[in-house]
Amino acid sequence: MEYLAIQSDAPGTERLVLVDGPPYDPWVVIGDIDVGSAQWETTFGAPHGTRGAMVAGDRVGNRQVVMTLRGSFSSKAEAAGYENELALALDECRRFGGWLIYRVHGGTRRTWWRVLAREYGMEPWGQRFDRVNELRPRLVLTVEPYPYGDPMDHATRFDDAAALAAHTLVPVGNGVIGSLTTGDGLGVSTVAGAPTYYLIHTDTGYDLGDTEARASLTLAAVNNTFEAGVVLKYIDAQNLLLCAVEGNGGSWRLNIWQQVAGSWTSLATQAISTPNAGTPYWVQGRIEGGVVKCEWGVGNLPFTPTATATAQLSGAALTALGPTGRGKAGLYWKPINTGDRIRRFMVDPFTYTGVTRYPLEVCGDVPGTAPALLNVAMSAPVAGTPWLMLGWAAKPQPWNRIHNEGFEVGGGGLIGGDNVGWSVAAVTGVTGAASSVARSTNAAFEGTAAGQVTTPATANTGAHYRLAARFERGRTYRFRLMVRSGTGTTNVRIRLGVNGDIASSTAAALSTTWTEHTVDWTPSTSVNIAYAAVEVTAATATIFQIDRAQVYLAQDGAPNRRGIGHAGRAPWGLIDGLAGFTATGAPTSATLSSEPYAQLDLSVSSLGESYAIAWALDPTLIPQDDHAGPTRDVEVWARLVMSSAFDGGVTALLSVAGEVYTYEWGSDGCKLVMPNGVQAFRIYRLGTIPLPDLVGDTGSTLLQLGFDVAAGTNNVAIGVDWIWLTNPRARVLTPTGIDADQGYPHLPPDGVVNEHGLVTGIRDNNHRHVGTLSGGVELPTGPVEFALLNSNAVPDAPTAAGIAPYTVSGSETFDTPRLHLSVRPRFEFLIAEE
């Protein structure tokens, strides 16, 4: 087991191991290794009265690692050989960069120091070298400020015993480690006793959440009892998640298994064709939140599955193995022939398919005590999709999907007035029509107001709140509501979901005491619109009050509200137009090309008109930039319904409640480029705006978007599909405001982000010039979220129809790619051990 090594970035070089296990020959470290510390250079602004000068900014510098080695040799020739080897490796680190790799004794994980420069000296030779052939080299290495941990991705071909030693045989099966062989993949020396192996990656294995793992296997002969697969989460010998291929009685199938508290359950199966002996097959498992897939196929990576089994976790399994469950990945194998082989085993944490434009919560924390580095591999975008933006943020604090949770608005504090968002109209499959819902100050659970619902003598009628937000399949959402009545005793219940997929609480009688009703909903399909409703279940005319209405992700716990009765979402990611408020209440839902959007007006007057829509935000749900005070800078993008019929022009004005404006355009607003279609969706950059944290304000921060449509042909609809918010210092993107032509920096076929930034290429006839845009991606530690935008139309491009072959007829379109987030953790000093 290597404890100290040097590896340069020179092509074709191998790692130079300096200190290995016993007998620690020839090099040992004498004294301590001085790893220094990350040095921060801090700058200060002007003094603030008696409070002193506040921090204006800081930056971190390199650090030095200093050590002395001692080598004892049998001859001076041997000493020269080892010293020359060390000198060559150090010089290659000087020329090309490299790594100093260190593992503490008894540790399982390595510390990787990125070497930037080096000084190499030798203590005076004296009699130590002349008489006993001893050398004492002194290394002074200038390294990056933070050491790296082992990569979270894992791949092995089981070339040697060291590769096998990185895995632990756990006591679930009956196999023994001594029977396993390496070299020609992972093999087995005997199949006596029908051994079963559960081989878990533990050497550098992190505890993972969302994970994809795959194994390449071949069968020496086709037997009916062969089994193999991947373990997606191994928590302990009683709790694990397994995706396997099984041959059973002549029939072959994929099978997704869960073991919870020692009890095994098959979640889903899918029949497959009988495999051929000698053909390499892939069996692959992936968990995203609470959804598990097992895939089977052949070919090069990424292979195209020929069969897929899919399951959704529920109950105790969802709790233990789902979004909040953490475990290690591994292999499952029940070989039947000594010639059976597992050729490759790979683990890719944080892999997602069909990525939409909504924020993607990464299940599984980013390890470390310093910002991690990120590489992104993405499936090739569809042809003619040149523009992409990737943003990231620390996961927001728990937030409420019901923004008018307590009817505390009063006087129209939110655009739309007191009851904004609430309705008594019937919604098919959710609730029937009631008489009214209104703000009342006669009774309140907290604050000064509540909502009062009046129902007719009809069962299953009440009030509802339309939730324009993303509800992911396999995630559990909780709706809780306080309910009372001054006179009624009718049974009431609350509901959360959509028509055909809805959860209901147990109906309970009303009383004069405020009572909390709670219901959990785990969608079977991801949706962007859901409903939270309260209704009577008997045909009795009833008046009752509601307060503190909250819908949130159950695993996160209840939101930490800043103001009683108000709720705002985080200023991050995609927010639907239908989640906004207009002067007449909630915006009208309309469709364009089968896509719903928030319609502001069905037909804009030829004389010109003005519009406004706003969203309730809570900036405190996400952290601010370093030393930025309470204000968060937010870059705002929008997908709008515009038209070439607006030939007089449209100006968009972004503000915080009409008082704070963007840095770029201020109170003048920005002129929008109209699409070439009569009516079409297009993406626009609306600017960067500072969102103040209104400390002590009981209301939410209102992000308001106004439109001034000049006189012109007009007479068509105008609307907002969504806005997309991101920290301008936490995103990478290809250029906007220019046409996509042959000189545009397009994404490469596998569109990637590496440690230097977003990789792009410019075509020049038959050549491609590859470079990077922006800087590298540094992730916060802990729970994080990502959001991805891509489009076949470059936002704000001056040629509305685009340039061949990147022409856009009407609405922009987007791709839903496969995304792998390759995370490299970093630390201040110590790497966590198993």
Could you characterize what this model shows?
With 834 residues, the protein is mainly β. The chain is 5% helix and 46% strand. The longest helix has 21 residues, at 76-96. The protein is globular, with a radius of gyration of 31 Å.
Mean pLDDT: 90
Radius of gyration: 31 Å
**Uncertain segments of ≥5 residues (pLDDT<50)?**
763-770
How many angstroms separate the termini? Answer: 16 Å
Total strands: the figure is 60
User: Biggest sheet, in brief?
Assistant: 8 strands, antiparallel
Q: Give the helix level as a range of percent.
A: under 10%
Specify the overall morphology. Answer: globular
Q: Which range does the strand content fall in?
A: over 45%
Characteristics of this structure?
834 residues; 4 helices; mainly beta; single chain; seven-stranded antiparallel beta sheet
Question: What's the short version?
Answer:
This protein has 834 residues and is mainly beta.
Q: What's the layout of helices and strands?
A:
Blueprint: E1 4-8, E2 16-19, E3 27-34, E4 40-47, E5 53-60, E6 63-72, H1 76-96, E7 98-102, E8 111-122, H2 126-132, E9 134-135, E10 137-143, E11 154-156, H3 161-165, E12 167-169, E13 180-181, E14 187-188, E15 197-201, E16 211-218, E17 227-236, E18 239-248, E19 251-260, E20 263-272, E21 281-288, E22 291-297, E23 307-312, H4 315-321, E24 328-334, E25 341-349, E26 351-352, E27 360-361, E28 370-378, E29 387-394, E30 422-423, E31 432-433, E32 436-440, E33 450-455, E34 461-471, E35 477-484, E36 491-498, E37 501-504, E38 508-509, E39 515-521, E40 527-536, E41 542-553, E42 573-576, E43 581-582, E44 588-592, E45 595-601, E46 609-617, E47 632-642, E48 650-656, E49 660-661, E50 670-671, E51 680-691, E52 701-709, E53 718-726, E54 731-733, E55 752-754, E56 757-764, E57 767-773, E58 777-779, E59 784-791, E60 819-826
Parallel strand pairs: 31-34
Antiparallel strand pairs: 1-2, 1-7, 3-6, 4-5, 6-9, 6-10, 7-8, 8-10, 11-25, 12-15, 13-14, 15-24, 16-21, 16-25, 17-18, 17-24, 18-19, 19-20, 21-22, 22-23, 26-60, 27-59, 28-55, 28-58, 28-60, 29-54, 29-59, 30-34, 32-33, 33-41, 34-40, 35-39, 35-41, 36-37, 36-38, 36-40, 42-53, 43-46, 44-45, 45-53, ...
